[in-house]
Write a structure and sequence with these properties.
The structure is a single chain. By secondary structure, the chain is mainly alpha-helical. It is built from 16 helices and 3 strands. A 3-stranded mixed beta sheet has the order 1-3-2, with helices on both faces. Helix 4 crosses helix 6, helix 10 packs antiparallel against helix 11 and helix 13 packs antiparallel against helix 14.
Length: 377
Amino acid sequence: MKAAAIVLAAVFVAGLASPARAQLGGLGKLKKLGDKAVDTKNKVDDLSFSEQEERQLGEQVSLQLRNRFGVMQDEKVAKYVTLLGTMLAQASAKPALDWKFIVLDTEGVNAFAAPGGFVHVTRGLLGLVKSEAELAGVLGHELTHITAKHTIRAIQKSKTVSLSADAAGSGGGMRGELIKRATEAAYKSILEGDFNRDDERESDEVGAKLANSVGYAPNGIAEVLKKIQARNGSRQDRNGMFASHPAIKDRIADNEKQIKSAKLTATATGEARYKQNITFDARPITEVATAEEGAAGLAAGDKKKDDDKKAEESKKKGGLGLSAITGGKQQASTQQASSAGARGGVPDRDAKGGPNKNAINVRVTAAEIEAFKKGIA
C-alpha cells in the first residue's frame, strides 16, 4: 500500500468512531496528513535534498572517509591547506558554505569531495604536488564537484537509491532512511571517483578559472595530471584520482585549449611557500601498503553484487559507472580494476590509513586569508 494511502486509511478508520462534528473537523487534519505523506513520497521518488540534508549527507561521508584513512595530525599543514582552500572557496559559486578542508593520513594519492562543503586531500597527494598552483588546481576541481552538486545529481540519475513500501516504518522515518541510503551510495561513488566525463571536464574548467582568478597559473591541474600519469606508469587498471590514461591525455589537452581560448593569464606558482609548508614527498606507488579489506572495506559477500552492478553501469555514459570517466573506452580495464580493487589491488584508493580519526578544528580569519593572498608569488 502507498505511504499516503496508509495514512489516509488510518485516519479514516479512526474517524468512524468519532462524533459527526469531530469527523467533520477532522477532515482538514486528514487532508493535511495525506498531503504531507504524498509530499514526502514525492520527495523520495525525486531524490531531492535540502541544503541541510546535503550537509548531513556530507558530514556522514566525511566521517566514513576519516574512519577509513585517518586524519593527519599536523596543525601547520592543516591550516596551510585550509587557507588556500578557503581563498578559492570564497571565489567559488558558493562562498557562504561552511567549507571544511581535511588532510587524510594515507600515502595513497587521492582527493575526495563530499556534498555540503567537505574537501579531503591525502598526505600522499600533498607529497606529489609541488606548488600552490598545482594544489589550487586540485582543490578548485574538488570544490566544483560540490558547488555543481555532481554527487547529488549522480545519485539522482543512477536510481541506485530506492525505498521499499515499509521504509516509512523504519526508525528514522522515510527521510532518515533516504539520507542513510544516499550516504552509502555517495561514499562508494566518491571513494571510487565515479564522476562522469562531463562532470570531470566541468570541474577541471571551473577549477582552472578559480585558480587563475586568485593569481595562480591555470595549468596547475594539468601538471598534477601529468604527475599522476607518470606515477601510474605501465599500470593498465585505474588507480586513484584521474587514473584513466586516455582521459588524462584528453584533459591535459582540454586545459591547454581553455587557457588559450579563455585567455587565462595568471602566472604565480607559489613553489617556494609550498616547499616551506609541505616538506615531505609521496611514496612511489610500489611502496604504498594497502588495507587488507581492499576497496576501502567493502564486504567480501558484496563483491559479486558490486561487480555485477559496475559491469551493468559500465554500459552507460552517465550516472555512477566507472566507465563514465573514460566514456566507455576502457570497459575491460575498468572491470579489471573493479575486481582487483575488491582484493585490495588498487594502491592509491586502497592505501592503509592512519590511526587517528579526529579532524583538526582549523579556523582562519579574514586577515589571514588576505595576507595569504598577498603572498602569492
